[in-house]
Amino acid sequence: MGLESSKWAIIFLVCWLYKNVSCNSVEQKIYVELNNTVPCVRLLNATHQIGCQSSISGDTGVIHVLESEEDLEWPLSKGPNPPYMVLLESSLFTRSIMMKMKNESNRVAGVAVVVPNTSPPEFSPHTTCPNENTGVYSDNYGPNLAHCNTTVWNPRGNGLSYEEFDFPVFSLKEDNETEFIKQCYLDHNRAVNGSAPQYPLCAMQLFSHMHAVTNTPTCMRRNDINFSINPEMVCDPLGDYNVWGSIRPYNDTVFGHKENESVVIAAARLDSRAFFWEVSTGAEGSVSGFVTLLAAAQALREVTHEAPPTRNILFAFFQGETFDYIGSSRMVYDMENGKFVIDLDNIHSVLEIGQVALHSGNNLFLHSDPVSRRNNTVNDVVKNLVNNLQSSTAGLGFLLVEPNVSQPLPPSSLQRFLRAQPIPGIVLADHESAFNNRYYESFYDNAANLNLTYPSDLSPEEQLEFVTHTAESLTDVATVVARALYKQAGGDESRVNTIKADPKIVTQMLYGFLVSSNNSWFQAVMAPELKNILKPSPPEYYVGVAMSSTPTRLVQYLLANLTGAATNLTQSQCQKPDELPNESRQMYSYLWVQGIVPPNSTERDSFCVRASVRLTKAVSPAFELGEYASKDYSTWTESRWKFIKARIFLVASRDLEMLTLGVGVAVLFTSLLVTYFISTKADVLFSSTREPASAAY
């Protein structure tokens, strides 16, 4: 075979091997990637940073499964192979244990928390006094009521969410991955009779390096330093959009005070949080309130069209309230500065729906501000609102009562309105003093916390329609809220008893917001381009930094469908309604929704909804004003990061690693010597004898 033929044969062989021989990378042979993990991330405000992070190259430690608090001795002092990656059950995820590991962070590389499918008796990583520094009470306003001096609202709070940890903390689901990790620990790491385990050891590596450090003023200043064409941001302000709508529309291009206009505001918050990033479910903390308000808005649709009250009713759903009242402070700021359709002087009164799903006994509680009620005018309006609420419970099996003692408002959006001026208001809640919610701002505040259960033999579609006891209870609360709002707005008293919330709508909303957002009803009321936000799981209620989160969009479209009107507009007309007579984008929003799939059809019956529902920014005024160290407004930001990753692998002993390194170095130098020898003797080793040229005759 000639030289040219040999070349082609080698090329063909290499190509065949490349195409047909399958081989895993070395990395895949060494590491097992963990997919069902959620990190704790870094957040910053005007003065602090909280949360968790890893080093820039990730943190690695030998896995130790913590079985009790006494077992901490092994990773913190006794264990011979630090640093350790501590795996613990949620029952051991306590302040005591976490702070001990924080104080010995040189021996702790990270923490992995196994989140079970069942909830502990109680757990709240929030503070005992939520939003204490940005509410209305201070040294200048009700100083004896400030800082929860008289009422500790969240006594179960352990404050873990507001601690800073210099190591990564991840959550793991109770699934096959977690069992694999535990088995790896048992096979390689468990000490027998107190003796040190033998190598190789099972180790875990966590990546969650955060770019932002110190506080919000520092990270925002670094955002403004542009040394490249594509500057890298290190943090972003928390924020989203508020959702609001009114029974009578407002021209959204005309801002400021409206003469002879009086408005009753009905409010609820949309967001929640948890220790871990984007696993907040907020069932009692937020969902119970805004579902009740949505149901009340729907109950008012017919009566307010037939017999409009003298005052307007504005439904407001605030985002970012967990983080120092981002949404409500922004709406108040806009009202004060002529950037909203009404101003503070147009507000007659405020009714806020707080946590309302866990009322024990037959009472819900009406909280008001004792300081502003010293003003006789304010007190009279509050008394009237209390009377309207209490008189609306007839025949519903529960009572609305005021707390027996003088105490401050619970954490609520109303406090931000009171910071601006004395506005009459009530906060409706299921607790007289301390929260009934045992899982305030934690990942356990889920459907189970509201006893939202379904018979096991029901299909998902049947569960969507099944009216639970929780839905019945919230329906009654929504009925009371709707009736009271109608009376407070000056509606026709003779029509009050006809106002009733729909239990079917309430149960569908609870299912969609707490079990699965990807259901037939949510699909029908959403726009086609937004159908991908619907998942076979509940939405996440952490406000985040990506504007227009899933809860915001869902509430926007639900409020529009529940209070608006279906039109005969085509899709193109729905997108450009100003080209038609009697239609105006200035007065209404026009939303094209998918609609239902009729029987014996595969095509959806899409249509256009006209409603007075709007979105307005829920970003703290501190970022509008550039006051990143503000004491008046929320300054919370979220750090950016490159990637989040977790993996496990077997690690060899230090001696074996050094031996391997030594052998590798020896092989390297031997190769260099051989290469040098061959290159210097190449003319001898690779010379070839040439045949003499043929003689010519």
Cα shape? globular
Estimated radius of gyration: 32 Å
By secondary-structure content and strand pairing, the structural class works out as alpha/beta
Oligomer description = single chain
Q: How far is it from the N-terminal to the C-terminal residue, by CA?
A: 31 Å
Which percent range describes the beta-strand content? 15-25%
In helices, the fraction of residues equals 25-40%
Keywords: Glycoprotein, Membrane, Notch signaling pathway, Signal, Transmembrane, Transmembrane helix
Family: Belongs to the nicastrin family.
Domain Nicastrin small lobe: 39-212
InterPro entries: Ncstrn_small, Nicastrin
Question: What does it look like?
Answer:
With 697 residues, this protein is of the alpha/beta class. It is 31% helix and 18% strand. Strands 1-24-10-5-6-7-9-2 form an 8-stranded mixed sheet. Strands 17-16-18-15-13-14-12-22 form an 8-stranded mixed sheet, sandwiched between helices. Helix 7 runs parallel beside helix 15. The protein is globular. The model has no long low-confidence stretch (mean pLDDT 92).
